[in-house]
């Protein structure tokens, strides 16, 4: 059976966002594109299990996330090496924040626990509701909310904003981070 | 046993207490990063992949 035109359109339409999500998960654009490709192959092989009328994008995100999770443990080292290459995927840097702050943001994002990072990206960038994100991550809505909150707090800590002086014994950590990063 | 460090940690602000301005700034950076990838569109390899699968008649599994 040839691919239904509406399915084809929906799948292709989801690709840019799937790539952005994949890059945020694994921090490496080549690996992310492989992840997207494997996701599309899996999805199309199982297209019968997609329920028409439901959110195609959320369905694809779920497949991508599950696939990444199963592969992630095997490739932990590769993931950790990925951050440096992430910059190469960015054609433009948002000038309104300045180069340094944007770089700090990316470095901080990579340091978040995977659970928190994916929740933050799904809700804060992919545009999913808390309910949709909970469905994608197979957890409770409250869990997603708390992960997003912790992610934001941790990011602010890592970037030494939000009155980081209030955060207690982190002076040393911040000094190291301010000088580090290379 | 409670050390100065654990006391400090307990006293630190709870998650969700970030100022609105900070949250907005983090959100903008996150979206800027994400949208930069989204704006790259669909790389050829994915359009080609779908064409190839389509051309195969979607591999009759039955």
Task: Explain how this protein is built.
The complex is a heterodimer of chains A (182) and B (62). Chain A has 182 residues and is mainly α. Helices cover 70% and strands 0% of the residues of chain A. Chain A folds into two domains: 83 residues, RNA polymerase sigma factor, region 2, helix turn helix motif (Rna Polymerase Sigma Factor, Chain: A), CATH 1.10.1740; 88 residues, Orthogonal Bundle (Arc Repressor Mutant, subunit A), CATH 1.10.10. In chain A, helix 1 packs parallel to helix 3 and helix 7 crosses helix 9. Chain B has a domain of 39 residues. Helices cover 63% and strands 0% of the residues of chain B. Chain B is built from three helices and no strands. Chain B is rod-shaped, with a radius of gyration of 25 Å. In chain B, 15% of the residues are buried. Chains A and B meet through helix 1, helix 2, helix 6, helix 7 and helix 9 of A and helix 1, helix 2 and helix 3 of B.
Task: Report mean pLDDT of chain A, rounded to a whole number.
Answer: 80
Count of individual helical segments of chain A: 10
Which value, in Å, is the CA radius of gyration of chain A?
Answer: 18 Å
- Determine the CATH superfamily of the largest domain in chain A: Winged helix-like DNA-binding domain superfamily/Winged helix DNA-binding domain
Characterize the overall form of chain A: globular
CATH class annotation of the largest domain in chain A: Mainly Alpha
Tell me the number of strands of chain A.
Answer: 0
| Percent helix of chain A | 55-70%
Low-confidence stretches of chain B: 6-16, 58-62
Order of helices and strands of chain A: HHHHHHHHHH
Oligomer: heterodimer
Distance between the termini of chain A: 52 Å
| Poorly predicted segments of chain A | 79-84, 162-172
């Amino acid at each position: 059976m040839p691919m239904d035109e509406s399915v084809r359109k929906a799948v292709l339409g989801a690709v840019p966002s799937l790539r952005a999500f994949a890059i945020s998960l694994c921090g490496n654009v080549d690996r992310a594109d492989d992840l997207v490709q494997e996701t599309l192959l899996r999805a199309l092989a199982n297209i019968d299990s997609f329920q028409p009328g439901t959110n195609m994008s959320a369905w694809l995100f779920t497949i991508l996330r599950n696939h990444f999770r199963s592969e992630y443990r095997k490739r932990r080292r590769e993931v950790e090496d990925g951050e440096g290459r992430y910059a190469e995927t960015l054609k433009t840097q948002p000038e309104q924040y300045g180069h340094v702050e944007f770089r700090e943001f990316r470095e901080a994002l990579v340091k978040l626990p995977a659970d928190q990072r994916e929740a933050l990206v799904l809700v804060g960038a992919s545009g999913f509701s808390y309910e949709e994100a909970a469905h994608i991550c197979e957890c409770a809505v409250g869990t997603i909310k708390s992960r997003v909150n912790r992610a934001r707090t941790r990011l602010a800590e890592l970037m030494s904003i939000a009155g980081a002086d209030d955060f207690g014994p982190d002076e040393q950590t911040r000094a190291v981070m301010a000088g580090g990063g290379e | 046993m409670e050390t100065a460090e654990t006391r400090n940690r307990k006293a630190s602000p709870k998650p969700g207490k970030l100022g609105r301005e900070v949250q907005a700034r983090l959100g903008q950076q996150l979206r800027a990063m994400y949208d930069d990838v989204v704006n790259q569109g669909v790389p050829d390899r994915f359009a080609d992949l779908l064409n190839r699968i389509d051309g195969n008649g979607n591999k009759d599994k039955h």
